[in-house]
Amino acid sequence: MGRVITLAVTIVLAVVVIIGAAGAGIASLLFGGTAGTGGLCAATVTAPNATPAGLTAEQTSNAAAIVAVGARMRVPVRGWVIAVATARQESGLISLSSGDRDSVGLFQQRPSQGWGTPAQLLDPDYAATRFYEALLRVPDWQTLPLTEAAQAVQGSAYPDAYADDEQPATAIVTAYTGGTLPGCDPVAVSASGWVRPVPGPVVSGFRTSSRPGHDGIDIGAPRHTLIRAASAGVVVTVLCNVAGRSYTPTGGTLPCDVDGNPQIGGCGWYVQIRHPGQPTGDVVTRYCHMVRQPAVTVGQTVTAGQPIGLVGSSGNSSGPHLHFEVHSGYPATEANAIEPAGFLRYRGVSI
Ligand SMILES: [Zn+2]
Question: How far is the CA of 277 from the centre of ligand 1 (A)?
Answer without folding.
Answer: 27
